[in-house]
UniProtKB/TrEMBL annotation:
PROSITE patterns membership: HTH_DTXR
Organism: Natronomicrosphaera hydrolytica
Cellular localisation: Cytoplasm
Subunit structure: Homodimer.
Protein name according to UniProt: Transcriptional regulator MntR
Role description: In the presence of manganese, represses expression of mntH and mntS. Up-regulates expression of mntP.
Amino acid sequence: MPSVTVENYLKQVYLEQQQVGDDLVPMGRLAAAMDVTPGTATSMVKALADAKLIDYAPRGGVRLTPEGTRLALQVLRRHRLIEQFLVEVLKLDWSEVHDEAEELEHAISDKVLAKIDELLGHPDTDPHGDPIPPATGTPRARTLTSLVDADEGRPLTIARVADQDAAFLQFADRHGLTPGASVTVTGRDPAADAVTVRPVGKRNVTLGLAAAAKILTED
């Protein structure tokens, strides 16, 4: 069983890879995401490279190997199933389950996780709309569009809120910007870097581009 630190690094590298695409994850970016010094991150990455879990290019960056990807997806599967369990069964608020899952993801056994998955009906996504990796293989690809780029005047369904910050999640919840909600982009103001949306049953809400980019939709 990998250590907690190893699991956290592998999971974070996977998440960063989703942002950078085919590029290597820069070491500075990884260190910032892990909240450690670049030297600490480099030492850990070298150990992971020796274990064949990461490909490391000095002055270039890192990328998970197939085995590193497999382990990272296992951690993400545990994390996101736990989040869904905490919201759906224990009725915790979706803004507070991330930190709880961060602790539990390293302790729960595969047997208990399988029972949780069965109890929940084998969900594809967690409360934030993040994909739950299957027991084997990779998550199903989805084509999502942020509110920044979504067409105006066309009904859309929010599929994912790509931010775990509690304050942002509480804001999204207050304004009806949660997964499954129907919304329409009603206007854009390039001068103000703002997008205005109308959730069904709610008043219009104006978002800055940084916030709008975190809310992903599908037709």
